[in-house]
Amino acid sequence: MFTGIDEVDWASLRHAYGSAEDVPGLLRGLASADPAERETALDGMYGALHHQGEVYDSTLACVPFLLALAASGEIGDRAGILELLVSIGAQDTAREDDGGSGLGARARGGVRAGADVFVRLTEDADPSVRRAAPEALVRFMDEPARVLGLLRERCGLERDDRVLHALIESLGLFVRRHPGHAAGALELLTARSAAPYDPGLRLAALGQLADCAPDRLPPDLVRVAVGLLRERSARRAGRRTGVGCPHSDPLVTRLRRLRPSDEQGSQLLRTLHRGLGDRLDERTALLKGQLTSPDAVDRCNAVWMSAGLFREWRADWTEPVALVGAQLGAEEDRLRDAAVSVLEGLFGLAAPAADDLAALVASRPDLWVRRRERGAPTLGGPLKALARSGDSRVTPVLAQVLAAPVVPDDLGHVIRHLGTGADPLAPALRRRLGEVVPDSPGTFERAVPLVSALTALGDTEAVPEVLRLLRGLPMGLRLRDPVVESAVHALGTFGHAAASEVIPVLRELLETDCAAVAAEALWSVEGDASVVLPLLIRELTDGRRPRRRAAAEALARLGPEARPALPGLRRLVTAEDLWERVSAGCAVWRISGDGELAAPVLRTAWTENPSTRRTITACLAALGPAGAPLHDLLHTELAARRRHLASPSGGHGSHDVLDDERLVRACGEVLRGG
Questions:
Q1: For the residues 171-175, what does the mean pLDDT come to?
Q2: pLDDT given at position 76
Q3: Which of 210, 388, 448, 525 has a 20 to 30 A CA-CA distance from 570?
């Protein structure tokens, strides 16, 4: 296995962490009799020689030894080595600067040289190796007819369920890679999508057909798929004891509970959903079938499946969200936690589940706050999801949480989603802000959410506490500037109620790094553009990009009064940084009323970076009818089914859904003229 390993000049080769001198040790570790040592060595190979999908010269040198290890029947865990080889050989050469002739192409060539190894491994005694081999065969053997013959043969001989599923997936990959030879593979997939094959195998075949040959799907696909899912679940029911897991370490327990306990079932339905793509009516019906399954594991898989749909696509999700909410009453912790996690990321779209969330919050006070061994407590998932949905039934509960000795730092962030329903919380929020020690290390984490909440409520009575915070912040405090900006924004929102006290403080900040933010707030409170205009014009030439952008944004809000700033803004419209161009373009258009310079810049930014779309839409809202040259972008946005920041894999902390829903609402308001 290691013939010639000592003849390689490993010291002259490199990997992700420098010299490759340690690589022979990793390779020998893969052949160790100790499973733990083999696992450590495989982790080391991924971390150093295939770091984040990259390949290095040392990776190329390893390929022959990895092939020898995979071919050997003398070591364990060869499936992991085979999967590593597939990942190395599948390196995307299209992104290489030298036209595909560099390391990626050479890595692929090295793995392809071992294609005959993969042929032998399809018959290996170890089912985990047989499971990994078909993909390698399809990817790296250059004889499509032979590959298809081998896959057909193995489909007829194989009896292991997981290997059969891998063969089905490889047939789908074969169709996509070799469309000229696809007919035979499609026949195999079509045959295995029907009786008398195992329901799980039929689901796997349907998923591949949905992706590569939708015309071969049955006309009643959803009914068939849901029926197969339930038949599969019924067969599996006798082989498990539930969806929970032992309550040992709290963090490990939670992480385990949040993973599907039926990985294969999750993958089957994920493949089918992915193959259906934008056929949302069918995907919604399929999801509803999953969410109403008698089997709790199927419903848990469906809940996780729903998260990707909600994050990626615009549709009427009322029924599926309500069905996710129905899982909150389940006895299984895994299912309930999955539903909570998904609903947390839906914000206002979680409203159909509000009754179930409210019931869970009312019945489980122990879930109101999530306490950790280290770090400050946070709001519990059910409480956060209910608050983010905008349901005012959460207000009395938040009042109780605010009255506790220790308040979760993130509580203030959910207040703004409640609108006027959170008004009764203002006194407690002011009191809590008054307890923040301005020069303490945790000022940012404690103060900013509270100030944000009071700003959202427009609480003029909070001015004294905001001023106290501002005056007490020492120079050099960790994350001082974000705290200052948060407080200044609050004063700009409601500081007019105490203008005589607020104005001197804001003027003091005009000579700091927060000058642009302070100038904008001062203009909001005082209304005198002549005081802040010279400073903002000067900020446009500051060497720091964030200050230039902040100045442009402040000038945009001044409107026509900021005409003296137009020369500097026009120069900034051609800046290298996209966000500077967007901020300057919006300002030029709002100040001058002339979109000839700005409109092309904003149109390009809209297309190149979807994250700019809410900023540009806000500009068009301020422009009114004058923004008509870009209204076609809004019409196109409203007609799109995919969310502008489609993120099927985003976590429950993601704001993508909220951001997209706000964009859609803003586009509609602009086009309606209001």
A1: 97
A2: 86
A3: 525
One-letter amino acid of 538: R
Model pLDDT, residue 263: 82
Per-residue pLDDT band for 443 (boundaries 50, 70, 90) equals very high
Q: Are 662 and 614 in contact (CB under 8 A)?
A: yes
**Residue 667: CB partners within 8 Å, gap ≥ 6?**
617, 634, 637, 638
Cα distances (Å, whole numbers) of residue 237 to 230, 233, 234, 295, 607: 10, 6, 5, 8, 49
State CA 551 to chain mean position distance: 31
For the record, the structure tokens of 591 come out as: 């100040």
Virtual torsion, Cα 636, 638, 641, 642, nearest 10 deg:
80
Of residues 232, 261, 230, the one with CA closest to residue 244: 261
Q: Which two tokens stand for residue 179?
A: 């469309």
Reply yes or no on whether the pLDDT at 43 is more than 50.
yes
**Phi-psi sector, 99: left (phi>0), alpha (psi -120 to 50), beta:** left
Question: What burial class does residue 561 get, using C-beta atoms within 10 Å of its C-beta: 0-12 exposed, 13-18 middle, 19+ buried?
Answer: middle
CA-wise closest residue to 381 among 623, 632, 651, 647: 651
- 370 beta partners: 378
Nearest to 188 by CA among 28, 174, 72: 174
CA 470 – CA 483 distance, rounded (Å)? 8
Amino acid identity of residue 346, one-letter, is: L
Q: Is the pLDDT of residue 545 over 70?
A: yes
Give residues with Cβ within 8 angstroms of 618, minimum separation 6: 586, 666
Instruction: State residue 55 phi and psi, 5-degree precision.
Output: -125, 155
pLDDT in tens, 87-138: 999 865 444 444 444 888 899 999 999 899 999 999 999 999 999 999 999 9
Strand, coil or helix: what is 246?
A: coil
Can you give the pTM of this predicted structure? 0.87
pLDDT at residue 250 in the model? 40
